[in-house]
Amino acid sequence: MNAKAAKTQPSSPLDKAEFKAAIVKHLHCSLGTDENKANNHAWWKATCAAIQAQVLEGLRKTQKSHYFNDTRAVHYFSAEFLMGRLLSNNLQNLGLFDVASGALKELGVEITDIMEEEPDMALGNGGLGRLAACFIDSLATMELPAIGYGIHYEHGLFRQEIKSGAQIERPDSWRDYGNPWEICRPESIQEVPLFGYVETKYGESGRIQKEWHPGSIVKGIPWDIPVVGYEGKTVNVLRLWQSDSSDYFNWDVFNAGGYVDAQRENVQAETISKVLYPNDETEAGKELRLIQQYFFCSCSLKDIIRRYKRAHGDDWSRFADQVVIQLNDTHPAIAIPELMRILVDRAELDWDQAWGISTKVFAYTNHTLLPEALEKWPARMIEKILPRHLEIIYEINHRFMAEVDKKWPSDNRIKAKLSIIEEGNEKMVRMGHLSVIGSFAVNGVAEMHSRLVKSDLFPEFDALWPGKLTNVTNGITPRRWLKACNPELSKLIDKKIGSDWPKDLYKLEALEKYADNKTFQKQFMQVKLNNKQLLADEIRESLDIEVDVNAIFDVQIKRLHEYKRQHLNLLHIMALYRRLLENPDYDMVPRVFIFGAKAAPGYKLAKDIIYAINKVADKINNDPRVNNKIKVVFLPNYRVSLAEKMIPASDVSEQISTAGKEASGTGNMKLALNGAITVGTLDGANVEIAEEVGDDNIFIFGLTVEEVHELKDNGYKPYDYYYRDPEIKAVLDWLETDYFTPGKPGALVSIKQSLLDHGDQYMVLADFRSYCDAQIAIDEAYRDKARWAKMAIINTAKMGKFTSDRSIKDYVERIWKLSPCKIEN
Ligand code: BZD
């Protein structure tokens, strides 16, 4: 939006002269420097400060309007919010980008340079955390009363360095030099009890009363990050809790004498919010992680209750009308017994009343079917850290088992299967089951995933409570993932179809009629070329690799995991390389294969795959026989701000997970929105992308979910593919030599072993040939410039469904039942 349009906003935004003055004032008065001395970092901070005043005014008005209208609100509980950078996004959403850029230019500063000063807020691992960030953007844009609750990690996801091809993890320090966006709210500090023991008391009325005597108490300090909606009317908040030691000393426990030593645990309070766990899709089962989860849930619930009580006092009857809590995966599931504890032990409601409220408040989103990612906590660990919560979980389970018995009388097999408690050597608490039982709605994140949640993961729950399990397909915010990250394409689209698409992405469909238009094709592909040039510059600067912008930019960006199959991509690259060595005239369109991926630090094979990509890259990039037909680029430290540069420059989007394993994917949506063509399996949201763009505009390959199941059931034998397909054999054998790792034979052998000796769990070999065929089809399609341009335009045009505004609309209508709230001046 331009400055003129922004003028129509209620809180009269700054014009260029005022903006200039504000920046200079902050340089002088907040940063103690001046226009001559300031470096880019100071300019960045001063620019942030210049808009923060307006942001805070919007926040104040929003909070006032929500309070006076006594609005029902959604509370999005997530252990992760992967926000990335905020300056460009906030400027875009306030309609101030052009004003700011002009003001800075007159001060002799390039806005793009100072934007690079901002550290990413990397408080998340991957898709799940980024989804939370897109959702809060949409919630504010759609003027919905909402608050995000999470953890104020001191260190976000590790910074990745690549040394001699291998991943090294370095700490991320996103707020070492201060963060201009966050506001500390000491007036809203909460206290969180931990450890200790439970005392049972018998009240006069015969009511059993439980009293938890915690062994230690930690303090939760809230930091608020304003979340500016597009066009700047609603400003919601993301409230992140930082842990600190409490001034409070628990005399109760102290006086219990000997009990103290047995029960008091010495968690250093500050360590709770120190660092984000870097594991995606694996459950580590670490005590500190459970404490983190409880810490932020407890703080957040108390915060919600404080706000509710301010309006409604002790009358709990309206709580579930005012409050809905969305659990982003099971990480915040401990909030369920925590709310029950507060209602039963503190507010003294009877169990049924409390359960009636609680199960109207919570809804749960499932993001994975991978068994190793389903959270389970040892009952003994919960008992030690949260003794009262374990009792409550047992009580919930006891009552639930009675319900199961009604539906399936005396069926112990089904009881064992559905129980929150998994019996075995060590009793475990299944957080997924707790979440389904304690919520009124459960959703998967793409149609196919939600179908599998019902049929494979929770079929009995679906039978017990028909309609509770549902689907909300993920989405992405087009403000960040097109408007802000791809300004050239955005301007071209504005010119062609008008500028209201960022709030109504279905408007992009109007581009379809230009898909065959030669002039528009040229303009569209020229923008792509320019974006490729910018990325090529970045690649040269960071890796000293020269890439040809006329080559196909083929991009795979996502966490490194076997199920995402970066090694399938790698094997294909090796096969191409081999074809070129065997036949120097092998006809192919030059390709640049670009990767971005972090591996969980303890995930050995994932790190081996990163190493292999880098070693193969070294060899190919420096082999003159390749004649620049293939380049392989691994861009280190993949993160939101790097994605913003890679996505606009991509021609091909690699979405090649084993069918049935990727719940949704959201990178697939971002890339297609920016005109990249997907090569993908029928997995997650790829299925819905294919439906939208049509079979001619996507390259689908590989086994379907049904075929994957069938092959597994009939005994999948990867060696058959190895012996039957000479190219597979050749590339796998190549990994065993020292060709790519001179002097170190066997350095890449773990990949071969995983695919042959360890059974190729993700069926890489089964899909290899069909993947190669899809790649050949891509090569052919790219040669036909008009055809490719048409495909790219159609991909952009057909992404309307995948705006996170549509996801939020689905949540609102089907689950949250919220109404927008107009913000009064
Ligand atoms: O969630 C991802 C899924 O793998 C994607 O398919 C999906 O699109 C997104 C959003 O729904 N899951 C994650 O990103 N999961 C994690 O990052 C994670 C983090 C901690 C613990 C377990 C999983």
Structure summary:
Its cofactor is pyridoxal 5'-phosphate. The chain is of the alpha/beta class and 825 residues long.
Note down, in words, how this protein is organized.
The protein has 825 residues and is α/β, with parallel strands linked by helices. The protein folds into three domains: 1-68 and 86-119, no CATH class; 73-84 and 121-186 and 220-246 and 273-474, Glycogen Phosphorylase B (Rossmann fold); 532-802, Rossmann fold. It is built from 34 helices and 25 strands. The strands form six sheets. Strands 1, 4, 7, 8, 11, 12, 13, 14, 18 and 19 form a ten-stranded mixed beta sheet that branches. A six-stranded parallel beta sheet has the order 22-21-20-23-24-25, sandwiched between helices. β9 and β10 (208-213) form a beta hairpin. α4 packs across α20, α12 (335-346) crosses α15 and α23 (566-582) crosses α32. It starts with a helix and ends in a 9-residue tail after the last helix. Mean pLDDT is 95; it is low at 1-10 and 258-263. Residues 125-128, 131, 279-281, 367-368, 373, 445, 474, 662-666, 684 line the site of N-[(phenylcarbonyl)carbamoyl]-beta-D-glucopyranosylamine (BZD). The modification N6-(pyridoxal phosphate)lysine is found at residue 670. It catalyses: [(1->4)-alpha-D-glucosyl](n) + phosphate = [(1->4)-alpha-D-glucosyl](n-1) + alpha-D-glucose 1-phosphate. Its EC number is 2.4.1.1. One of its GO terms (molecular function) is pyridoxal phosphate binding.
